[in-house]
Specification:
This protein is an all-beta fold and 419 residues long. It contains 2 helices and 27 strands. The strands form 7 sheets. It has a 6-stranded mixed β-sheet, with no helix packed on it. It is globular, with a radius of gyration of 26 Å.
């Protein structure tokens, strides 16, 4: 695209737009200024051993800046003796440390005064990462936490892992697999070929195409959504088995899922992830799994599950924020949030907006699956998408679950008009 930009790599190449398919011996059909002005980011740091840490950036860096040991600071009094850039792409640097990394200790690494090949300084918001020596993954240290086995059209399966131990686990040593119909281990493959740290209480999403996952779901931490090194094992839409092993063949976790584990009132389960309720409970217990809530887009890759069991009071509550709003699109209190907090997952909500005389004006939700907490939004419109008159309205909320538990809430909200 730009012959004067020697640094951007894939970002400086695209398919020819010439009608003949190419322009040999002539100016490229896509020729234009394509200057690199984006700040590079430090993605992660992995300990090759207790005395060597490798830092990984998201683009080619200035090798002379990478090689300056004073450009790096490590917590707990550890100094960098030498910094060695890694050829040929120079997006990595190996740091020789002055003291060994201690087990079960999380350090921080700061990269300062380093620039990319074009001279852009590292993004200050992405110049610090965590570092620590790896522990050996044992049974149930890392567990399967979320499974998308029946994706949307043009979507892909994903498996979310959760590190529930106090160890820093090397993802390079983890293997995803399935089981064949006779129960033997079927397709399997290492998740990553490079050292990659999964810190305690972190989530990692594995798929064949992280970009597609990010298009269809909210990925809170893109750096923890990775593309599997080989082929993704097949996880059928009706039932199957997700196996997580270490590279020695030891089973760390195993889930034999079934389509019937989804919430019973959901008719179309396509695109809805199955979430683990309690990371410390049994993996193969169907009562420990349920559908991701509608309020989070039916999946929570790289984040805590919408149906995750948490220690909350044994009550349910509904609140409205703000209590007075003006839907005039001026950017100030244009809608009301109906916020909920439940003691346990598995609830379904019906929400109807009624006027002061008790007449329904808006069916806001019907059979909406809910997480432990979340919210719904009312924009002041009725079922005909017309603004309702100013005044006080009743928000009637009914929640229930498959165990027969039911509660009803009545909250009020006022629609005002600015003069």
């Amino acid at each position: 695209i730009d012959v004067k930009n020697a640094c951007t790599g894939t970002g400086n190449w695209t398919a020819s737009t010439d009608a003949k398919g190419g322009t040999p011996g002539a100016i490229n059909s896509v020729n234009k200024v394509n200057a690199d002005t984006r700040a590079p980011r430090l993605l992660y740091a992995a300990a090759s051993n207790v005395l060597v840490a490798q830092l990984v950036f998201d683009e080619t860096m200035d090798s002379s800046r990478l090689a300056t040991s004073s450009n790096y600071q490590i917590s707990n009094g550890i100094n960098v003796i030498t910094a060695t850039p890694v050829a040929p792409f120079f997006n990595r640097v190996n740091l020789l440390l002055s003291a060994p990394l201690m087990g079960n200790t999380i350090y921080t690494v700061d990269a300062k005064n380093v620039t990319d090949c074009s001279g852009n300084a590292v993004d200050n918001n992405f110049s610090r990462v965590k570092l620590g020596s790896f522990g050996t993954a044992d049974s149930n240290d890392v567990v399967v936490n979320e499974i998308l086995f029946n994706p949307n059209p043009q979507g892909v399966d994903y498996i979310e892992l959760y590190n529930r131990s106090n160890k820093i686990i090397n993802v390079q040593q983890l293997v995803l697999a399935n089981r064949s119909s006779n129960g033997s281990v079927g397709t399997f493959g290492s998740i990553l070929t490079d050292n990659f740290p999964l810190f305690p209480q972190e989530y990692l999403v594995v798929s064949s195409d992280p970009a597609t996952v990010a298009q269809q779901y909210t990925v809170m931490k893109p750096g923890l959504s990775v593309k599997i090194a080989g082929s993704m094992p097949s996880y059928p839409d009706d039932k199957g088995t997700v196996l997580l092993l270490n590279n020695a063949g030891r089973i760390l976790d195993e889930v034999t899922y079934d389509d019937n584990w989804h919430f019973a009132l959901i008719n179309n389960k396509e695109g809805i992830a199955l979430e683990r309720i309690d990371a410390n409970a049994t993996s193969n217990n169907k009562d420990n799994w349920t559908s991701a809530a509608k309020t989070v887009g039916y999946g929570t890759p790289t984040a805590a599950n919408s149906q995750q069991k948490t220690a909350v009071a044994n009550t349910a509550s509904i609140s409205i924020q703000p209590s007075i709003f003006s839907p005039d699109n001026d950017g100030i209190e244009d809608f009301a949030l109906i916020q909920y907090q439940f003691a346990q997952p598995g609830y379904v909500a019906n929400i109807t907006i009624m006027d002061a005389a008790g007449r329904p004006v808006k069916v806001l939700q019907r059979n909406a699956t809910c997480g432990i907490s979340g919210n719904f939004r009312w924009d002041g419109l009725n079922d005909k998408l017309q603004k309702v008159p100013v005044g006080t309205y009743i928000i009637f909320t009914e929640i229930f679950n498959l165990q027969g538990q039911r509660q009803v809430f009545k909250n009020t909200v006022t629609i005002a008009k600015k003069f």
